[in-house]
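Worked example 4.2. Below are the chains of a multi-component assembly; read each line carefully before continuing.
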Amino acid sequence: MRRVLAIDTSAGTSVAVVELGAAIGARPQCVGSWHSDNPMKHAENIGVAIAAALQQAGLTASKLDAVVVGRGPGPFTGLRVGIAAAVMFAEGARLPLYGVVSLDAIALAEREAGLTLEPVARLLVATDARRKEVYWATYSGIGLERGEGPGVQKFEVLLGELEPAGPLVAATQGVHAENIGRLFFEQHLAGVASLDISALYLREPDAVPTPAKKVSG
Amino acid sequence: MSLHSNWNIREAHESDLPELLKLEHECFGSDSWSEDNLRSELVEHHTYYLAVEIDGRLVGYAGLSKLPANSQSDIQTIAVAPMARGIGLGHEVMNRLIRRAVELGATEVFLEVRADNPIAQKLYRKLGFEQISVRKNYYRPDGVDAIVMRLVPDERSVQQRPQPIVLGIESSCDETGIGIVRGNTLLANVISSSMDEHARFGGVVPEIAARAHLEALQPTLRKALAEANLELNQIDAIAVTNGPGLGGALMVGVGAAKALAVATGKPLYAVNHLVGHVGVDVLERGVLETPTIALLVSGGHTSLLLVNDLLDDVQLLGETIDDAAGEAFDKVARVLGLKYPGGPEIDRAAEGGDPKAIRFPRGLSLPKDMEKHRYDFSFSGLKTAVARHVELAESRGEAYNKADVAASFREAVADVLVTKAVNACINHGVPRLLLGGGVVANRRLRELAQEQCDKHGIELRIPAFSLCTDNGAMIAALGAQLIIAGREPSGLGFSAESTLPVTTIQSR
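Applying the procedure described above to all two chains together yields the following structure tokens:
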């Protein structure tokens, strides 16, 4: 397992080709990527994004070893586009397919950016869940391991719940597919890569069964 | 068995032998090949046999022989069950064999035909065969002469009519459909529906539909490939519905199709869902006869189209201004305490009911509506009228006749749909009407359409139900027509458009 196509549409549209270096322990390198922070237009962008990442890497699908996708949580409509694309790319290229929690890739980005926490502090990763809510998870320790979450909650309510347990550091990074790829390699090398690619919706569909309405007053 | 069935042509296997033998006896009686003879024909390396199925039943087969060292190929036999004759099957199978012979390097194709079988001779002449000799008393024991015919296939003409293998992906509503066609031949049509998950809500819930699409993609794709007995790398192109439909649902299919296209390196065609419902007719008739009026009725659409050309000229004459016809069935079913989906439930409830018992309104059918809404539909007033009727009876503590209400409601829907469609045919001088969409399953709608079309000398086309309801085969078929016409692929940048106009047949 040396080279993967990483896809994430939990926020913007992000695709990267990430490969392991020859040296043991070297940071996996992004050799091609396409990224947009636009929280819409996932269906428009996804094809161009995958093609561009591969082209930049100078590769065709047959040179990849796996596909890894961010499972969210994220706004459903966009999130599904990336997972659908990952499923079909893996089918089309006959590649194994893996899933990671998108929020974990933000924690990884913070770690790579040099974030170190006090022993009692936690990193709070929170992304826009619309409807005045956030998707969130907390991370702690040297490796920034996920503690609580992922969940979905009103931000103020969440803070009220988390703050009494100790100081929080807010994450500032976004989700980039290259970190989805790096996260996968970490998990793969640790033997904990996951085949679960189900979308982390965290909310039920809004629909509620209603009795038929009366029309005559 | 009728025109309305799908046929599927595939290579014959030894495992087909028992069914082939039965067919052989049915078609040739005392002239039949023995079991051993037929088996060796199937398993030999220099033969190529095709089997034809309709609804999973073997109804025909044909084969050729072509030795590697020889530039001549012989058509060994062709058999079509009596009930499957007269629908162009023989022509299609022969065409396939001829193409195969050319691919195998044949420059001449020979066959023998009984002198007392003018229908077969006519078919062969139509395909370009010419008589070259007669073998006296060839067919025993009847002593009938054999006419030997020869075709010199025009290699270019064979190649100029490419039969692209196209995989179509449909996800505009609650059906995940993946279909595969070769040109205008259906190879696979697999549909995964989330209908049951919507039942307790009494209608399609977009978020539930979109979630179901995501789950269904991979299994549906694998099933379709298995059904067509193909690998993904044998597909020539991919087609996908990019609208109109539910936005979130469409986006799943569009994202999936784009990724599949990049992974496989195949060209991608973004096609219009509604035009797909029209184009599906090529899978049953080989071509779409135009001009035609198309009436598309489902839970999401009620549209009347004028199709002058499948790929270049489709006009929207009218559509519903409120509920779709299928939605009206669902809503009225709820009013009557029936289950979802409403169509079949109302059909059942209407059994024995009097369709004239209650005169429910026909939306947008008054003289004053003719100017602005001549071909538009409205069903919300009808639904309200039914609800009022029921509520009034209930408020008086009276029982209402459910069969009469169901039958009268159904009559009102069918009447307004058929009347407007037939009027469109008459007013535009178009002698054809094509029906599509899930509501076509409604028996009364089909009956009334047939009745009115017969009355006005209009030819009515109703594709098989599996092709009327939302499906991937229709998307594949429209994609194949675009390819055959030499159209460029759509690229990767197109969007999912929930309100895509019917005039945009292919998006870029």
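Take a moment to check your reading of the output against the notes. The longest strand of chain A covers residues 29-36. Chain A has five helices and ten strands.
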